[in-house]
Each structure stands twice: as structure tokens, then as C-alpha cells.
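Fig. S4 source data, part A: sequence.
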Amino acid sequence: MSVINDKKVVQKQYENATNLNTRISLHDKYSVNKQGFGNWIVSYYQITEGMRILELGCGTGEMWKNQISLLNQCSELVLTDISAGMIETARKKIGNLEHVTYQVVDIQDIPFESNSFDIVIANMMLYHVPDMKKGLSEVKRVLKEGGCFYCATYGEHGIVQYIADLLKPYGAEDSTNKNFTLQNGKQILAQYFSLIEKKEYMDSLEVTNIEDMLEYISSLSSMSSISKIEKSVIKKVLEQNMDDGVLKVPKEYGMFICK
């Protein structure tokens, strides 16, 4: 697939917040760790007075919604996404604050001067970048000397692998994008940053309503093979794996902190 087509696929998948909100809703409702992944990520941000911050792939902006104290610390927070629809959703969620700006930006061509941000954030999006070298080179370019890059991602042994294993007899495959995961991320980042720390978020799902899980599965572009399986079959398999009315699903998420 060409770089142009890759970009178009990502833009189509995230042209609005529907699929993303479906996935967020399942995590909010059934996650065992009640801190929440977004809150956990933000707890590691070391933001001090006057910092200039760039977020790439901000999505719905959900993580900033209840972080007014952090927002007030920034001299400027630039929220960007490749999707204009996501930018509009983030603007509505966070509001038009004096020191927060919104802009459609491709990480492979960041339209800001070199050495201009104290912190750059790219959560749950690096695996979508067609040219990883170009994207991370751009991150390093706009990051100030001594600045910090935060990037969250998933592991290779979480929800999708679990679902694919359950439905393997029916032709399901785990076709998750593994371009940037908890397993290979440090090796990739080491080409650009000298100090890299990996943090892992301990959590799982305990799902009691299988319809919610079915809706989640249908929102996953990485589970295209499952579209060939009858919904009734998927539901039956999931129900057969419930224990006392609970489907226990492993999660594997975390983040890298780079300097």
C-alpha cells in the first residue's frame, strides 16, 4: 500500500469519533483498573509553568478534558490530528481557551520551527504513520534540547489477539498493525532518543454484556477477517468463554518516555 493510500485509510477510519468512542466506552465500562489509561498517561507528564506542548494525533481530546490545572501550566498547548473531524470534536470537548490551539497536522510534515516545543506527545498513533523515520525525525526536530517525548501504544498480546484466538477455528486472524508496539517500540525510538523508559499499564476487561463486546469488535479495522463470521457465531463463542457471566479479556497497554 502506498504512503498516500495509507494516509487516506487512516483519515477514513478516523474521519469522526464514532469508532473511537465505541472503543473508549468499552474500556470505561469494563476496565478492572479504574484509574483509566488516559489518567495514567497524564500522571507521567512533567509539565511546568510556561512550557510549550505539541500533541500529535490528539483524537477527541478526551485526556485533557478534566486537566484544567495542567492546561493552565502551559504557555501554549497545540492539539493536532490528521483528521479535521477529530480536531472539531476536540475543540468542542475542551473549548476555545486562550492558550490552546487546534490544527490539522501530519506528523510526517510538522509545520513548526525546530527546537520549539518542551514536550511532544503522540499517543496511540505512531503505528499508523506510513513513514516512521520521517515522522520521528520531525518529532526530534521540533523538540527542544532536553525536551521530552511521550508516546503510548499497545502490546501484541492484548484484546485483539485474545479475540482472534477464540475465533481462529472460524477463520479469524490477528491482523493488528504491529509497526510500533510495546515489544518493538524501544528499538525504534533508540534511533532518535538516548534515554527511553517503558511504562506498562496493568489492566484487563471484565465484560458482562456481550453486545458491548460485539460492538467493540465491529469497530476494529484490524479485525477485517471477522466480518466474514456470522455475528451469532461470534456471540456464541464469546458467551461460551464467560465465567459466571463475565468475559475476562486481557489488555496490554503502556507508554514510552523519551529524552
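Fig. S4 source data, part B ends here. The CA atoms of residues 39 and 63 lie 7 Å apart.
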